[in-house]
Structures are given as structure tokens and as C-alpha cells.
Amino acid sequence: MNSQNLWQGADRRIYMNEVGTRDGLQMEQAFVPTEDKIALVNALSAAGLSKIEVTAFVSPTAIPALRDGEVVMREIARRPGTVYTALVPNVRGAERAIEALTDELNLVMSVSETHNLCNLRMQRSQSFAALLQVIATAQQAGVPVNVSLSCCFGCPMEGDVPQAEVLAWVQRFADLGVQGVTLCDTTGMAYPSQVHALVAAYKARWPQLGLTLHFHNTRGMALANVLASIDAGADRFDASIGGLGGCPYAPGASGNACTEEIVHALELMGYDTGVDLEQVVAAARALPALIGHDTPSQIAKAGCRLDLHQPPADFAALRERALARA
Amino acid sequence: MNSQNLWQGADRRIYMNEVGTRDGLQMEQAFVPTEDKIALVNALSAAGLSKIEVTAFVSPTAIPALRDGEVVMREIARRPGTVYTALVPNVRGAERAIEALTDELNLVMSVSETHNLCNLRMQRSQSFAALLQVIATAQQAGVPVNVSLSCCFGCPMEGDVPQAEVLAWVQRFADLGVQGVTLCDTTGMAYPSQVHALVAAYKARWPQLGLTLHFHNTRGMALANVLASIDAGADRFDASIGGLGGCPYAPGASGNACTEEIVHALELMGYDTGVDLEQVVAAARALPALIGHDTPSQIAKAGCRLDLHQPPADFAALRERALARA
Fold this sequence. Notes:
Organism (chains A, B): Comamonas terrigena
Strand order of the largest sheet of chain A: 1-2-3-4-5-6-7-8
Oligomer: homodimer
Structural class of chain A: alpha/beta
Keywords (chains A, B): Lyase, Metal-binding
Number of strands of chain A: 8
Number of helices of chain A: 13
Distance between the termini of chain A: 53 Å
Protein name (chains A, B): Hydroxymethylglutaryl-CoA lyase
Domain Pyruvate carboxyltransferase (chains A, B): 14-281
CATH class of chain A: Alpha Beta
GO molecular function (chains A, B): hydroxymethylglutaryl-CoA lyase activity; metal ion binding
């Protein structure tokens, strides 16, 4: 275990990446109006998120929910210090993203052959060849690249993915000079022991390569996995406002790790996320009006731990009766 | 931190106490038929739970949902090694429980004056005086006593409860010779740093007194709190099948720590809970038919991490198309 005490954050900095505006909204049936998306990104910027995955530069027929990527990326108010990233599947997307002044390109492929075929309609080797060109395009433009590797903690169709297989994919991208890698638990199969071991192995092998962890709360383990990651040396996490998101290949799956739940817990533990909890909770509570349904966020429902409740209306009377019996 | 590695369970024994049949069912609007309650307890016994809080011996008008306590306690099939406990509020309840051959009496009061008044209609000093008589009754009959202290991690009306106040209440009951104390997070206010500190303080002061932790998942921290407890030396946890339960004084609160979620995570981490996960998941999935609504259990919905899914029906075709492009 880490020599520092996991349970005492002691103001250690944890970086929170918001993915709800991309990974969350892309799953929604309802098209969230462009001005509402911009307002949401602006609210998340103001709340202090370190990085925001604003949108995706994909085909508008593939993901109609995000067909307004250019406008959103161009019209958001950029907070100094926040990185505005976007998902990019190919060179065309990269060009669009770079033209829209995206700070960082986020590339995606899966370490599971079956999941990659289902999700991206390509073999992994084909995806890698395509991303090679995207990385070259980004590097020519001087734009940083992050690679999100899906299914690093298991594939919902194949099952376990060996740690060595995950690390081999990280190595291929490290060799290309990308700035960071995100190890994604795409369908909530990660568990703390496994997370601790993989993060420790990554940090030992690539102490300088950016590392982000992306968890889903499908089986209630997202926060525990975040803590296992911190204990193994990680300090950067994807999370989604309201816990939006999911995976079409894993029925019954709840969403991404919920931004306000993770921030709420980490701040109580003394970590410094840089995030204003009140503002993200307000943003989470505004989501149902935008997307037309409730979110999985427990903090949006129950409030923060010291959001106190009034005693029942008859409290004075029942206290009187109790005292009279003394 | 504990000298043992939290992330590697290494077959360390963790004891799971099922509270769904009492703490869960008492909140339900629907009366679960007596024979279904008995079948549920029997299923939980067969699944290997260490202790089961079968029912409560309270006034049938106070908690009509549990008005069949005697019959249930008498007719369950007792598995050797499982402890069958029941909630008991007063001497009359203790006598009924003892007559029904209850293995252990579980007493409840709150460390928060406001919560105790709301929940038990008594001052804490009045509750303590009443429990003193219950403990004497139990001790005369040679029946072990556990005391569940509500609001040990905060009161939803008063806010934080000082650790010294919690420990003072434990001391009063330790002085009376009870067998164990449960530190209850009645409305999901506990967070891992606080849990680690309180459990460590308890274990340092009362290394021999039984200790159980009772968490709610109101703000998504139940599993993280269990792990913090284990790291501080605890090994016994209350949890509720399906995540049933809640607290009427904390609107929006989701239920108790969910038995199958905690067991699923701990078993993956290499701990030995003695619980057959498949059997508790089956019991959880049978609950909606008994109580007339869905439960918060994420494992009941999503399945265990290696419950794999079939690729989509057109998988062979899309694979062909991908290969043709190579």
C-alpha cells in the first residue's frame, strides 16, 4: 500500500474529469438543445472541474445527440486551467476538433476484440491503425492526445482481460508519444484488488505517462475503485454529472461514476478536488429537466451529509410528553 | 493503517449479518405473508449468513409489518452456526423473544437526543434506563445482548455527533456486560475517514467487545465504509438483502448496505464471507414479488461481474465486414 494514509486526504490534489456532456449525453434519447449543453459545460467549468469532455466529433448520423459538437466547443466560456477535450474517432474528426480549438483529443479503442468489434465495427488492429493516423494529425497540430482504453477491467462478452494484455496496449500508445491513457471500466466489472494491482503496475512502468481511471457504478464499486486507485498512486478520474451514461452491451448497467458522489466522498476525506460541491449538485439537480428522466445520483436525491432535516412537526409535543414521564 | 493489505483479502473471514428481514421489512407498506418471511429467512440461512435479524418483538400496532414475530422465530429452520437475533425494545419484548428461543437480543437506542426522541419517543437517559432492565432480563435468561447505537456517524437533524459522545455510550453498555455493540450509520452520513477513526478508537479501547458496523448506502459510500472498517480492524457488518430499508427521518435516503453488493465485492477481493453469492442474489431477485416494488440492489439488476452477455445478433456479420476491410 501507499505510504500515505488513504483515509486522510490531507489536501492532496485529485483531478476530476467530467465526461457527462459526452459519455453521458450521447446515450440520451432526447436531444439536449445546444444552448443548454453550452450552459451545462459553463456550469461545470465554473464548478472547477479539471477537464471536461465537451462533445464528440463523430458522424452526426452515428451519434445524433452530439451533432452540434462544433458549435458547443466554439461557444463555451473557457475557464483558464480547465482542459476542454473531445472524443475523436478518425482523422476527419480530429481535423474538426482541432479547427474548433479543442484542447486535447480523446481517442477510444477497446482492449477486448469482441467489444471493439461491437462498439467500433473494427478489429483492434484496424482501430490501432486508424488511431495512428489520428495521433499523427494531432501531433502535427501540436494538440495533446489521450487514449481511452475500454474494457481494461473485463469485457461483458469475453470476461476477464489479462493485465498483460492491457499493459501491452498501453505500451503501443506510450511508444507513439501520447500524453495520457485512461483505463476504462466500461461496464462496471472492476473491483478494488484488481484496480489496485493494475494501477500499481502502470505507475511502476510509466511513472511519467498521464493516467486517468474511468469507472462505472454498475455493481456499486465505483467509489471503492477510486480509493483503491488513489492508494496505488493515481490522482485523476473520469466521472459523470448525475451518474449519466452506461453501455449498450451491458443490459441493466447503471451509469458512470457520479461526479458529485465521488467529489462529496473525497472532499469529506480531506482530498482537494478543486470542485465546488454545491455547484455540481445544482447542475446534477437540473439534469432531469434537460434529459427527461431521473438520474442515478444519490447525492442529488439525498443531499450532502450535512444537509440537515427538520424534526417532525410534532417534535415539541413529543419532547414534552417524554420529559413528563421522567 | 492495518499491517495487512486491505486490497488482498487472503481468505480473511468477514461476518455478514442479514438485517433485511427486520430493518428492511419493517419499512414496507405491504405485509409479507408469514410463510414467505420464513422461506426468506431459511433461504438466507442456507446461503450462509453468519447472523440473521429475523424479526422484532414490538407492539403489533407500532410495527404491523412484523406482527408475526413469534411464529416466524419459532418456525424457521435453524442452521447450526447461524445466530438468530431479534430487535427488542423493552422487557415485554425480551420475554417474548426469549420464549420464542431467540439466540440474541438486539437493543436499539440513538446517540443523538433528537433522533432518539423522534424514533423512540424517549430521552436517551430514559431509553438507557429501559434497556438496563432489558439487559437484566436477558442476563437472567442467559441470552446474549447486542446494542445497536443509531446515528453514530451523524444525526440527520442534529448533524455531527462527537466521537467522544459515541464512545461514552459504548462504555455505558460495555460496563453492563453486553456481548457486542453495533455502530449504526442510520441515514448514510458516515464517510471513510470518520469510519476508520471511530473503528480504530473502538478496537483500541475494547479489543474483546463484539463490534458490528451498520451502514446505509444513502450517499453511495457503504462499500467504501466497509473497506475503511476492515482496514481499521473490524470484521462484522450488517447488510440488507436487496438493499431494503431506510429511515423515515431522512427523505430521499436509499436503503441499508446491500448484502449481495457487499458480498460480491468482498468475495472478489479474496475475503471469505461464508456466503453463497448465487443464493443471496436469487433471494434478492425474488424480493420484488414479495414487497411489490423494485429494490436498490445493483447486483440484482446487473448480475455479478462475470455474468457475461451474448454479443449482438449481427455479430458474425459485422465481424465478416470488418475482416473484409483488412
